[in-house]
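This section describes the prediction task in plain terms. A model, or a person checking by hand, is given the sequence of a single protein chain and must write out its three-dimensional structure as a string of tokens. No templates, partner chains or ligands are provided. The sample shown here is typical of the held-out split.
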Amino acid sequence: MSRTRLEAALEGNLERYMQDELDLAREAITHGIQDTAGDLKAALREDVIQGGLGRRLARSWQSDDYPKSGASLGAASVVYTKAQRLVRAFNEGSTIRSDDGFFLAIPSEAAPKTGMGRKRLTPSNFPEHYYGPLRFVYRRGQASLLVVDNQRARTGKRAGTFAPASKRARRTGEGLTTVVMFYLVPQVRLRRRLNVAPIALAASAGLARNIDAAYRGASRRRLR
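The expected answer:
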């Protein structure tokens, strides 16, 4: 409390002074918590990128502030991810198995990016009407396969991709190939790539510093 403000309080403005201090506290706590949440969100997003998991998953980290507007001594911010299962798997390291107890189907590089209805590609929504039926290939001691026959390799700008062979090519057998669309494995082990708990702990440690900085900034603005 500065001497000038103390003298003003002793001259009969104590109530106003205390109200000003309460307003400053509300503003400092609210902004300090929001700044800390922002730091945490940014750090968690960077952790995802550094883990090689891409910007799309990084952007799944979001934050909400309470209250939505104004300031409060009871202000709070929540940092969360919209991809909880995926983040948990890479944060803990886990073994993923098929829900039905059989195989996990992992699309190959040659497989289409999406299935029918623009959904994530699986054997059940694979566009067989275009590529032809999937065929199971068992391999002892290795991942089994789901393949499609009678494909032809594209050339030019689309080299490395495949398309169903024409009727003429099927008759002659010229240039036909079988393409792997899925690898079938009993389970996949995900190694740990994220560090959510240490990052959250480090961000929390900066909360008091952020509140203090917000208080000092608010005080300077009011003295102008």
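For orientation: Helices lie at 3-50, 54-58, 84-92, 128-131, 167-172, 196-205, 207-223.
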